[in-house]
Specification:
single chain, mainly alpha, Rossmann fold, two-stranded parallel sheet, disordered C terminus
């Protein structure tokens, strides 16, 4: 199973040729494709920022429905995701988050 991230999904929805090739070739090679509940939420958020909300929602729903199953996360997985994501994206040193634990 190949899990597609938000960047690739957005590129596909925008019609970027390389992203289209990646997704189509994965399907042709028999690889199952899916995404996560987080990526789905990010796509839906983008729909509400678009000029044509209804059209955007329809495109996103068609794409997500083509995956069949959307991966959900348990709390332990969410913590792992949050740790990795914060390490990759945060310019702040550790201990400078929004939560102050004393």
């Amino acid at each position: 199973m190949v899990v597609i991230d938000t960047d690739l999904l957005v590129a596909y929805l925008r019609g970027t040729e390389n992203s289209y090739d990646i997704i189509i070739n994965s399907r042709k090679n028999g690889k199952g494709l899916t995404t996560t509940i987080f990526n789905s939420a990010e796509l839906c958020k983008g729909c509400f920022l678009a000029k044509n909300i209804e059209k955007s929602i329809n495109k996103v729903e068609q794409l997500l429905n083509s995956f069949g199953k959307i991966l959900k996360f348990k709390y332990d997985s969410i913590k792992v995701y949050a740790k990795i994501s914060s390490e990759l994206k945060s310019p702040r040193p550790k201990g400078r988050g929004f939560l102050r634990v004393r």
